[in-house]
Amino acid sequence: MTAPQLIALGVLVLVVAALIHGKLRADVVALAGAAVLLATRTVRPIEAQSAFASPAIIALASLFVIAYAMELSGLLGLLIRGATKLCARLGAAGLWLVIGLCGLASAFLNNTPIVVLGRFPTQRFSAEPAP
Question: Quick count: other Cβ atoms within 10 Å of Cβ 11?
């Protein structure tokens, strides 16, 4: 393997490990990985710039904005509290009902917004104390 390939592989492994660990924000990890690839000249600046102009990246960023707006408005908290009460009242059947509703929603919606919306409750409503 060449040096640029080893650098790219190392950055990929470190970025994936940092995302799995979850202590750093995903945008900081991704931008730090891109910065390392740019600083080591593994990726040319025009290639990095064209990646940010990708319609998929713009759509994903827009979905994060929409999900955050839903969280700030209280709608997301209301939905999460309702699902939590349903699961508490019905037990395992309630959990399966929520899973089924998410599956039904993913049949008609793109899966990316569902994942984005599901990301915020795990951060905001987890049992761990917020940093």
Answer: 19
Percent of the chain's residues with pLDDT above 90? 24
More confident residue, 129 or 18: 18
Place of tokens 């690839």: 37
Helices (H), 40-91: 45-52, 55-73, 75-90
Of 22, 126, 124, 18, give the one whose Cα is nearest residue 67.
124
Distance of CA 4 to the CA centre of its chain: 28
Predicted TM-score (pTM) of the model is: 0.52
73 with 114, same domain?
yes
For 102-117, b where at least 16 C-beta lie within 10 A, e where not — what string? eeeeeeeeeeebeebb
Whose tokens are 């019905």? That residue is 90
User: Which residues constitute the domain of residue 5?
Assistant: 1-53
Q: What integer pLDDT is reported at residue 92 of this predicted model?
A: 81
- Taking the C-alpha atoms of residue 2 and residue 7, their distance in angstroms, rounded to an integer, is 9
